[in-house]
Design goal:
- The chain is of the alpha+beta class.
- It has 6 helices and 6 strands, in the order βββαααβαββαα.
- About 20% of the residues are buried.
Length: about 170
């Protein structure tokens, strides 16, 4: 999958509070950003890579024949288009409800323990978290989160399951 730091740079309005990257060996990577808007509401932005296969499936379902034909022509004329450019991505966003926002508040107010054992596994994904507190704090974990990071596990699973509706097996936190 495409793992350039530039790929993960995308605009998100408001004050950046949390950034989470889920990197996987088997499915496209995804990044979430949580911001506080001017009205104090929390907004989640996320972006996931779209593979050539997914794009072709979307094109097959397009109703606008002119647009469909243009994309099909592009894929036929330039079959290595995706090999030489960044993947096609969309930025999605949604406001968090007050209950979901409490998960973010708890994580920001209390942080995460630094001195914990970090179990790892071989299921092919990792989590990179940055909390934007007084000083940014970065955390990285492979496959399994330490028991002391239960707050982070709940936040990840809320983002994966409730917000982005991604496959828990490949993106969720155990």
């Amino acid at each position: 999958m495409y793992r350039s730091g530039i790929w993960f740079d995308f605009p998100a309005d408001g004050e950046l509070l949390v950034s989470l990257k889920i990197t996987s060996s088997f499915v496209p990577d995804v990044q979430f950003k949580i911001t506080r808007m001017r009205d104090a509401a929390y907004r989640v932005y996320w972006r996931a890579e779209i593979s050539r296969e997914t794009l072709e499936k979307v094109v097959d379902e397009m109703h606008d024949e002119y647009s469909r034909a243009a994309v099909v022509r592009l894929l036929k004329v330039y079959p290595d288009y995706f090999a030489n450019t960044e993947p096609t991505v969309l930025v999605n966003s949604v406001l968090l409800d007050p209950i979901q926002a409490t998960l973010v508040d708890d994580l920001l107010q209390n942080g995460l323990a630094q001195d914990v054992g970090r179990p790892s596994g071989l299921d092919g994904h990792s989590f990179e978290l940055t909390l934007y507190r007084q000083e940014p704090e970065q955390f990285r974990c492979w496959c399994y989160l330490p028991a002391e990071w239960e707050k982070l596990k709940r936040l990840i699973n809320m983002l994966v399951n409730d917000i982005a509706e991604l496959d828990f097996v490949h993106y969720g936190a155990n």
